[in-house]
Structures are given as C-alpha cells and as structure tokens.
Amino acid sequence: MPFSEARRFKFLKIYCQVSAIIVAATGGVILCGWAFHIESFKSIFPGSVAVKPNAALLLTLSGTSLWLLLPGDARAPVRHLARFLAMLVTMVGAATRMEYLSGVNLRIDQLLFVEPAGALASPFPGRMSPTSSASFVFIGVALLVMEWKTKGGRRPSQGLSLWPALIALIAITSYTYGATDLNRLWLYTHAPMPMAIALFVLSGAVFFARPHTGIAGDVTGEASGSAMARRLLPAIFFIPLLLGWLCLHGQRSGLYGSALGLAIYSASSVVVLGVLVWLNARKMNIEYAQRSAAQHDFLTGLPNRMLLNDRVNQAIIFAARLDKKVAVLFLDLDGFKHINDSLGHATGDKLLQSIAKRLVKCVRATDTVSRQGGDEFVVLLSEMAHSEDAAIGARRLLQAFAEAHSIDQHELHVTASIGVSVYPDDGLDAETLIKNADLAMYQSKDGGRQNYQFFEAAMNVRAVARQSIEESLRRALERKEFTLVYQPKVSLKTGGITGAEALLRWTHPTRGPVSPAEFIPVAEDSGLILAIDRWVLREACAQAYAWVDAGLPVITMAVNVSAMEFRDEKFLESTFGILRQTGLHPKFLELELTESVLMKRLASTESILKTLRASGVQLAIDDFGTGYSSLSYLGKFPMDVIKIDQSFVRQIASGPDEASIVTAMISMGRSLNLRVVAEGVETRDELLFLEAHQCDEAQGFYFSRPLVPDQFANLLVTGVVRSGSGDVKAEFFKPALELLPGDGLAKVRAEES
Q1: First and final CA of the chain: distance in angstroms?
Q2: CA 427, CA 97: separation in Å to the nearest integer?
C-alpha cells in the first residue's frame, strides 16, 4: 500500500474514533444535565433548544456501538454487544416515529426524566423531534449492517448514513440562516442545534468506518477520480454555505428573496454537487481500474512486473537522495507444482492468494509485494539503513512461510527459497537488481531450499556460462555435434555381453567435449531434452539394427528416458514410430526410467508401461535405491530389470552394513523375478561380491569404458570378456572419446526437480 494511502486511512480511523467518543460524550453530558438539572448541559449551546433525554441516550448508545465496531477484527462478544446497542437505537427511533405517525403515546418519551408540558419547542413532553427519530433509525440500521456488503462491493451502511447527514445538514443550515420554518419539518418540531451537529459528525464516522470499499472507497482510493473528489469536497460544503450566508445578508438589505428560499437553495446545492462529484469519481475510478489492471496480477491483486519495476526505480531515486539502501527479495515456492498436480489448480490459486496476503502482512506499508507469475513473488524493501536489514526481512518471510495454510479443509505446507540483491552493491537499476535476486534464488534452491542467499558476482558468471550452453545446445542437433558411445553390460553367469547402454556425448566446436553433468540439466530446464531424447533413441535403435544386420551377436540396447519425454503425449507414438523406421525389433530395446519418473501420475504411468511391455519393449528401473523405492509399486509395474545405482556398488568394500543394502536389493529383485544389473563396477572385489550374491549382470570400467560404435563392434566380435575358469579377462579398449565426468550420474534423463 502506498504511503500516502496508508496515512489517509490512518487519519480516517482516528477521525471515526474521535467522532464516536465526542458523540457518546455529548450524549452523556446532556444526560447529566437532565439528571442534575443543569440547564446549560441540556442544550450545550447557551440559549439553544434543549436536547431530549431519549435523544441524548441514543447518541451515547450510537457512539458506543460505533466505537466497538471500528476494529474490523473485533471479537465476537464485542460485535454482538455493539449490534445490540445499535438495535436499541433503531427500536427507540422507530417507536418515536410511530408515535408521531399514529398519534399513540407509547410512554417511552419520559421513561428517564420527566419534562414539564409546554417546554421550549416541545408539543409532546420528552419526545425528540421527528427528524431526530428518523435519523436514529437510519443510524441504527447502518450500524447493524456495517459489516455487510453487496456482490458489487457496495456497503448499504454508507448509503443509510447519508440520510441522517442530510437531515442534520438541513437543520444546521436552517440555524445558520435563521430559517426556523425549515427546521420545523414534520410536525414543525425543532431539531436542536447540538443534536444536528452530533448527528452530522456521527453520520460521517459511520460512512468512513469501512473506507476501503463502497461509496467511501470511491472517495478514499488512489485513483484520479478519488483524488478529485477529495479536492472538491471541502469546496462543496463550505462554498455554498458561505455564498448563502452572503446572500442572506444581501436579502436582509432588501436585495434578495426570503430566507427560506435561500436556505433550500444552499442545502440543495450541496446535495446536487455531492452527487455529481461522486458520479464523476466513480466514472474516473472505472477508467483507472481498467488502466490499473495492466499493472496488477489478476489472481492476487498484487503489483505485477511492470509496476514493480517502476516502484523499484522510484525507491532507488529516494535511496540515493537519502543515502539509504534498497533490497529486492526474489521468492520461489518449493513444491508448489506437487500441490497443483495433486489438489488441482483451484486449490493452488487459493494457496497463492493466501501466500500473497501473508507476505503483505510481513512487510511495511512503504514496501511492495509483487507477483511475477506462477509461484514467484518479489518483495521490495525500501529505505533500509543497512544491508543486514534485508536478512532480517528474509528470515521473517521464511518464518511466515513455515506456518500452514488452511485451504478447502487441507492443511497445506509450503516453503520458499529466497534470493536477495541490494542497491547499490548489486545493481543500480530495477532490471539488474531483480535479475541478480533471481540468480541468488536459484543458488538458494541448490543449497537446500527453505533458506535465503545474497547475490554474489560469481553467480552472474555462472548464469552467463549457462546461457551460452543453452544457446549452443539449440544448434547442436543441426550441426551434428552429438554422438553416442556404448558401454557393455556383462552377464555374471556366462561372462558374455548381453547388452549395451547408449551414453550421449557433446563435442562443442570451440570448447571441445562438454560434460553431461554440465549440459544435461540445462537441456532439461530449457525443454531441449525432448528433441535430444528422440535423437538418442533413433540413433541407438539404428545402431543396434546395424549390428544385427552385420551378423554380430544380438544384444539389447538400453536407452535412458527423461521425465519430459515420458510425460509427453506423443511418447508412445514417437517410440513405436522410431522402432518402425529403424527396423529394430521391440524386444531388443530396453528403456530405462528412474523411480522419480515412474512415481508421478501413477495411473497414466501404469498404462504406458503396460503398452510398452505388450509390444515387447523391455523396461528397467534406473538408479534403483536413490528414489521412491517401493515393493508395492515394483510388483504393480510391469518391469523387467532393476539397476542398482553405482553409489551403492561403491559401498560394497566399505563394510558389512553398507554391503547389506546391495544384498537386500539383489534379493528383492530376484524375489520379484526381475533381472538385477549393478552399475559402476570398477574393482575385482565388487565383482566377486556381486557374483557371490547372484547378481545377474554388471557394467562399469572394470569391463570396459564407453566405446564408439566400431570399437563396440570389435568387442562383440572378440566374444567373451571373462574366461570359463572364472578369472576376469580385463580387456580394456582405448576409446576414441575419453570418459567424461558425470557418466554415471548424468545420463540422458531428467530427474524431478
């Protein structure tokens, strides 16, 4: 909320509180005057008409009810008491009106104090004027419905409060101009001047008690129409009254008409001008809302990227002038996609709205909370004395995120990762600060999430390098910079080669070989992995068919499938199309999927796997043990192979506790009639352990490094890698491409983020 708007609402709140106190106190003073026979207290103004006891009582009740209703978050007992008082005001006012209209004395006029007959301006002893009673009916009903608003955002309480204000204005005008006939409307009974002033003040306080919406919102908002209304309102009230007073003096000099006509003219001028200003303000606010929609997020109502940039630049200007700092905090929700997928977008939208409200409560009125889109928010902290203040703000936001959100009977927990950039240390303009905070946010995610990270210059260097990789990747397929190498899988029973795993290599024209660990994550994030996956599958199937066609031993070709490729609606069509194009029989293709890929969207996953299995394609769980290992789903999914991740194989020599995990995995696979393949076998001890525990197959550097197609064909021709006596023939073939870091951990696949 802008500072000027916050100050305006604070002023209105103080005005309403003071008005409630003044009105209640005025009623109390008048009641004391009646109780202790102090004539000056009865009329407040010396020489004016005395205020009736019932009217004074209703002033006190109305002021008290308004005071209790002013806090929007008042407790239920307090609200009930306030409405009870408002109901009393309505009932007494309505009963008095009934007395006038029906001519029946309900004996409520002198319940508190006895007034002698024939008192000043009182045809009926103790009875307030008809105008006062009507005003209290409107005031009482307005207090009763103060919290209610229509679907269009209108508040009936504000419209009701305008009627007693009009009645009071007529009475005040009549006293100002000495037009007593105007003040004797409805049975010609006086409405005392103190009562008229108190009702006018009370009506204004009820009108502005909820200033954000309704007619009051048209006046108090930030739009140009509201600003125009605030400028004209003083003129609307004082100029007609002043001109009327001047005209009255002219009339008394014989220049103008009667006082009554002049008073009616003045009061009508105020009403007409007020309505015109309101209609004009409403029209201008509609135009402003249309313009503002382009600057605010439609879901949360928060400033969007365009408005945020403007406010950041303004904050920078003020910070430079005052020698202050400005911080930009870039927030990204952790795990929001899972909530969206599992509970639906409607629940996700409500969660975003709840988060937006919580963020706004965590910052100052001079700060800004913006939604960038999706599950990303940006918080602008302005006028900070020290950079450390941003860390305090970040910790406060993380603490707020830790609390659960109650959405549609769900207790939802989300965390956030925050990146922080500070002016002038990390940037001199809005675009740079937001970009650097975004970079720091990704660093925060890599550091474990649910924390914050300040921007460092090295992050920018990494971001530039990453962007360079992405741009080069987009041209790599066209330039035929990708190649495949193949690592053999060996049967531990026969020593024969049973299959090959296709591994991707990228040779950049200027940088040379690029590690899969470096370019695969970039391909996943940019969406390029989809095209790369299909190229790998086509090349691998074509190569397997070429070996078969050349008369080499038939083996199974294993290809990794990324999460994006597996979830693509054309995955099955593309896979079967490639098999038809290359001529490879489906039984010679093995698709490797990680556990994290399999465990998403279980129903569709099971259907896809069954379709593949029915065609003859073999299915393997890759990197088994690093994800969602589950016996129930292993039995449910039609899998053929589980591949023990190399991180477990390397622990075999560490001790019996670590080796027992591998033993359990082998036993699990065998009990489910699945082939068990151990990845990353590099030592003789690892091989002997796997043989002893009846592991079916293995692959790793102990047998061979990844080989180019011609070298792998030569390996197939040589036959057995292991001799019949059980001794290993460690035949290593020097590959045309050296092994690159990340072979075991960054294959052609996309782990879930």
Answers
A1: 35
A2: 70
Dist. CA 259–CA 251, nearest whole Å: 8
pLDDT digits (tens, 9 = 90+) for 139-178: 999 999 988 877 766 788 998 999 998 888 888 877 776 6
Say which residues have a Cβ less than 8 Å from residue 682's Cβ, sequence separation at least 6. Answer: 650, 700, 701, 702
Phi and psi torsions of 678, nearest 5°: -100, 130
d(CA 640, CA 738): 31
- At position 667, the amino acid (one-letter code) is S
Count CA atoms within 13 Å of residue 454 on its CB side: 14
DSSP 329: E
Q: Pick from 464, 382, 365: which is nearest to 422 by CA?
A: 382
CA Rg, the chain, in Å?
41
Distance CA 232, CA 273 (A): 9
Q: Work out the pLDDT band at 296, boundaries 50, 70, 90.
A: confident
What pairing do the DSSP bridges indicate for beta strands 497-508 and 556-560?
Answer: parallel
Whose tokens are 């036959």? That residue is 719
Report the DSSP pairing between strands 512-514 and 497-508: antiparallel
At 696 the pLDDT is 93
- pLDDT single digits (tens) 206-228: 999 988 888 888 888 777 677 77
Do you find a cis peptide bond into 521, omega within 30 degrees of 0?
Answer: no
Residue 752 has pLDDT above 50, yes or no: no
Angstrom distance (rounded) from CA 255 to CA 250:
5
Please answer whether residues 225 and 285 qualify as being in contact, where contact means their C-beta atoms are separated by less than 8 angstroms.
yes
Of the ranges 31-40, 147-156, 451-460, the best mean pLDDT one: 31-40
Residue type, position 99, single letter: E
Indicate whether 731 pLDDT > 90.
no
- How many Cβ atoms are within 10 Å of 650's Cβ, its own excluded? 16
Confidence of residue 243 (pLDDT cuts 50, 70, 90): low
Longest CA pairwise span in the chain (Å): 136
Closest CA to 200 of 161, 232, 239: 161
Q: How far apart are CA 323 and CA 616, in angstroms?
A: 71
Main-chain dihedrals φ then ψ at residue 490, nearest 5 degrees: -115, 135
Task: Quote the CA–CA distance of 9 and 345 in Å, as a whole number.
Answer: 35
Question: What three-state secondary structure class fits 171?
Answer: helix
